[in-house]
Design a protein that fits this description.
With 123 residues, this protein is mainly alpha-helical. 58% of the residues lie in helices and 0% in strands.
């Protein structure tokens, strides 16, 4: 069996996909796929795809970030389930942590009246 570069050379010699598949004794879909990959990427090598694929798309990540930025005070879980129809899972929590949202609330501050403020200034 010959290599994918031979297919490209045959294509460049003005042969059709059917003629190339008959010459090399491989399916037409394979030849067409190789030629398409060559036109799009400029190579027939398989791109590296290490690791697990992301569950959320880039659009989903942007929507999640926008929702969290819009209302940090509200419960994120309830808001996402109603607006986006998303189920809060470890994947969503992982994405939020990657964006810098760690679920920490602001420290509570004591109420300072005018009288207490004057006392603090005198102290």
């Amino acid at each position: 069996m010959q290599t994918a570069s031979t297919n490209i050379c045959e294509r460049l010699c003005n042969k059709s996909i059917c003629e190339i598949s008959l010459l090399l004794n491989i399916p037409r879909s394979t030849v067409g796929g190789i030629i398409t990959k060559w036109k799009q990427l400029g190579t027939t090598a398989i791109p590296l795809r290490s690791g697990r694929q992301h569950k959320m798309t880039e659009r989903g990540q942007r929507m999640l970030k926008h929702t969290v930025h819009r209302s940090r005070q509200l419960s994120i879980a309830e808001d996402l389930q109603t607006s986006c129809g998303l189920h809060i899972s470890t994947a969503v929590c992982r994405e939020l942590q990657g964006m810098g949202f760690h679920g920490r609330t602001a420290a509570s501050k004591s109420y300072i009246t005018k009288c207490n403020a004057e006392r603090q200034m005198q102290w």
